[in-house]
Amino acid sequence: MALQAGIVGLPNVGKSTLFNALTAAGAAAANFPFCTIEPNVGVVPVPDARLDQINAVIASKQILPAAVEIVDIAGLVRGAATGAGLGNKFLGHIRSVDAVLHVVRCFDDPDVVHVDGTPDPDRDIETIDTELILADLESVDKRVDRFRKASKGGDKDQLAQLAVAEKLKALLDGGKPARAGLWTEEELPIVKENQLITAKPVLYVCNVDEAGLGGDNGYVRSVRARAAREGASVVVLCAKIEAEIQELPPEDRAGFLADLGIKEPGLAALAREAYRLLGLQTYFTAGPKEIRAWTVRVGARAPEAAGVIHTDFERGFIRAEVYSVDDLVALGSEAALKAQGKMRVEGKEYVVRDGDVMHFRFNV
């Protein structure tokens, strides 16, 4: 399963710089020779040090990290939902994404024009939220009309659809995103079916200047306060620095980061936080041909994890041989894992853990 996230934000907040850094990261990875799928969709590898740890023990021909697809939406302006600017052309692109990355400008620079004069994170976020809410409202209004007509015969499914559509309309009319609603287990699948942009979890990306990497400035604190109220997540990075990192040879990057006083590129934190936001985790397969990271939801059982590789694996699942990356590193070989009883045989009810290395046995 490939995670897909859509980047939104006002013009001149650093979206293009961040998107270019993300796609450069994809292009630099040997297993992602093409950094874009379409002009506005990039493929980004998810940094994971455990891949190299596995490779240090199990020599393999190639290493394949998990991937995130990033959809870049043209900078939205006030009125985008009703046709202003270019943003409305691309709003449809993010209806199917899993999460929204909302880039917020958190730096002052007189040479970089702000669409509203000066940065103001709360106002800027409100502008984008309003446009997304208006775009969703247009879609929900159509569903309300449709299911009012369809439910006149008393059909239970149609009535359920109408009830959710009306609840969504009330939320959006009140200026609240769909994710702010309290939904029952029966309502959630219907909400998801609507593919509303404001129903998706949000990760706020605070784009700071180099000085802002040393600690939260007032702009970042404002975004964190808002995110806390909404139950959203925040990542702080400098898009300009991220772009510079991608231009450096890999062997020079650690020194560059050390000079800046940061431990890792912001893109790594962004990818990791997007995974956490969506309740995803990683398991690995490892052998002489390839070591690969696979994405699976937290709480998934072994057959579901096998199905991520191929549906036949899930359908014909027999058992899984499982061990942890930590145990592999500590003991130094799969033979040692077996000898120490650290390689377990698990059945259909096994709940996958983040960092598991798995070998599946199946019969179709």
Summarize the topology.
Layout: E1 3-8, H1 15-28, E2 36-38, E3 41-45, H2 49-57, E4 62-64, E5 67-72, H3 87-90, E6 99-105, H4 121-150, H5 156-173, H6 187-193, E7 202-207, H7 218-230, E8 233-237, H8 239-247, H9 250-260, H10 266-277, E9 280-286, E10 290-297, H11 302-309, H12 311-315, E11 317-324, H13 325-331, H14 334-339, E12 344-346, E13 356-362
Parallel strand pairs: 1-5, 1-6, 4-10, 6-7, 7-8
Antiparallel strand pairs: 2-3, 3-5, 9-10, 11-12, 11-13
Plain-language structure description:
This protein is an alpha/beta fold and 364 residues long. 42% of the residues lie in helices and 20% in strands. The chain is built from 14 helices and 13 strands. The protein has a 7-stranded mixed sheet with strand order 2-3-5-1-6-7-8, sandwiched between helices. It has a 3-stranded mixed sheet with strand order 4-10-9, with helices on both faces. It has a 3-stranded antiparallel sheet with strand order 12-11-13. Strand 2 and strand 3 (41-45) form a beta hairpin. Helix 1 (15-28) packs parallel to helix 8 (239-247). The radius of gyration is 23 Å and the shape is flat.
